Amino acid sequence: MPQNKRESLIYTVLMCFTMVLWMSLYNVALQYGAVSLEVVAAAWLGFPIAYVFAMCCDWFLVSRLAKGFAFRFLVRPQDSPLKKVVCVSGCMVVPMVLIMSLYGACEGAVHTGMWSGVPLQWLINIPRNFVMALPFQLLIAGPLVRRVFRRAFLEGTVLA
């Protein structure tokens, strides 16, 4: 886990990149009904704006709320690092799924012009995204990003 603000920013950049790219591919594949190069191209085109939006939401809102909730109600300072990681990651996924599912519903409305369908699409997106985002975060993205982060930045090498 990051030890200071600079490490947190680097870690967040890597984690957001991984999660937004994967969830973009997943959502576009759901929309197209298959996985193809067209899906990859469409997901990649929508990725930059979704990434910037997710990064801002994560850095300025969700991270503080999730860590506050996790350390107030779920973990104590003496708990194992694994428990802390799992609890904070789980607490990050829930609000990010809510926010990014709304983002996806709004993005769909921009393309179709059907703004009246946004609330229903948002409610449909939430469980679809949650069932992918939570296991992906806990089992793949989290361990992968932590490993890459610590290989690139040994503990104590990124100054505060």
TrEMBL record:
Coiled coil: none annotated. Signal peptide: none annotated. The chain crosses the membrane at residues 9-29, 41-61, 82-105, 125-145. Keywords: Membrane, Transmembrane, Transmembrane helix. The lineage of its organism: Bacteria, Bacillati, Bacillota, Clostridia, Eubacteriales. This is DUF2798 domain-containing protein. Pfam families: DUF2798. InterPro entries: DUF2798 (IPR021529).
